[in-house]
């Protein structure tokens, strides 16, 4: 494949309320097999606009992936537009009709007549099954170009693209693939990371198969994306493993993930492996830490309790933080964070207790405790960490930063107990 483009169809994607995320997912998967996406477009539900977009794309590409507009309603026009541009007639596929009818019958319903439209296939097209919805996808080879039509809902599109990757797309890409690794760093700024890593990766560019790097900064974490083009996935894995090892030395304990795993996944894996449980008492993070920990499948093995105690009263009633400790130190203070962690640990009967209290802003800051001040306590088996940090940005960012700092503190504490090669930091 020399040139691939994506068209995302849907008028809602042209408004601020809905973002085209499908093209990001498609691009990610295609990149993995060495197909670069050269351009993408978002087009509204309009037959003329859509036909125009398809016509122009077909002049340039040898692979065109489209998402959306395969539904049963009048505004779903992708099939018609493809038929209009290619001149191919639309045939009704009786198997698809039967499949859609069956989906409705399974729910005790009759199939509305408009759903028949979803059974229309441009002549020569191959049907791509949709296990999660009514609209099947279509794979169409036309005059040397491959057109792939996929439905808009991301949860339907994803498994369909996975199947196509295995069965049809990977075979299209003879030869070198593009292999990637995502590393994540926390507790350092983008310029610190760049300063430490640049001498390492500048060497990689001199090789016959250079490793490309991109640095991406987000609140609480910096990502380093490595990519290399190689003929064999084994060889690529070896080269990338070595590259990661060099960066580990350069970045030290700030590097927390070397294959795309999130902080909460890593903390979860360490907790599960060490057979430890955790309980969380949160004030300024409003439940974000508990939410992140429970985003991980299987977290019920270690997550015991989460309490959002915003008021002083709740800190005392629910967590047993002594009122005098709050009065004499202020709600945002290390003694209060510590007492919250202790309360969570006891009430959750957990091995590790977490307490977080801070000022997320925009008001409530003082000279000695400006907005962004957050006191953190992590009481673990054998050791405890209690400290005060300051984080920049608005409420949402302070919450993110604080949750990341807490989870990273837990990660480091767990690694001190039992060093493990893939939680990093030896
Ligand atoms: P359906 O049979 O559900 O109508 P469809 O192929 O017609 O499928 P759309 O109607 O265009 O798809 O979109 C269905 C849902 O998927 C909508 O909620 C839409 O916002 C979402 N969606 C569509 N395209 C995208 C996209 N590119 N990225 C993310 N979400 C999308
Ligand atoms: Mg639709």
Tally the helices: what do you get?
Answer: 13
Mind summarizing the main beta sheet? 6 strands, mixed
Order of helices and strands: EHEHEHEHEEEEHEHEEHEHEHEHHHEEEH
**Largest sheet, order of strands side by side?**
2-1-3-8-7-6
Query: How many angstroms separate the termini?
Result: 42 Å
Describe the protein's topology.
Elements (H helix, E strand, L loop, with lengths): L3 E6 L12 H11 L4 E7 L3 H14 L2 E5 L10 H9 L3 E3 L1 H13 L13 E3 L3 E3 L8 E6 L2 E6 L3 H19 L4 E9 L4 H15 L7 E7 L2 E10 L2 H19 L3 E3 L5 H12 L3 E5 L5 H7 L8 E6 L3 H8 L3 H7 L4 H14 L4 E7 L14 E7 L4 E7 L4 H23 L9
Parallel strand pairs: 1-2, 1-3, 3-8, 13-14, 13-15
Antiparallel strand pairs: 4-5, 6-7, 7-8, 9-11, 9-12, 10-11, 15-16, 16-17
Helix pairs in contact: 1-5, 2-3, 6-7, 8-13
The structure holds adenosine-5'-triphosphate (ATP) and magnesium ion (MG).
The site of adenosine-5'-triphosphate has 20 residues, from loops.
Summarize this structure as a short list of keywords or feature phrases.
alpha/beta, single chain, binds adenosine-5'-triphosphate, five-stranded mixed sheet
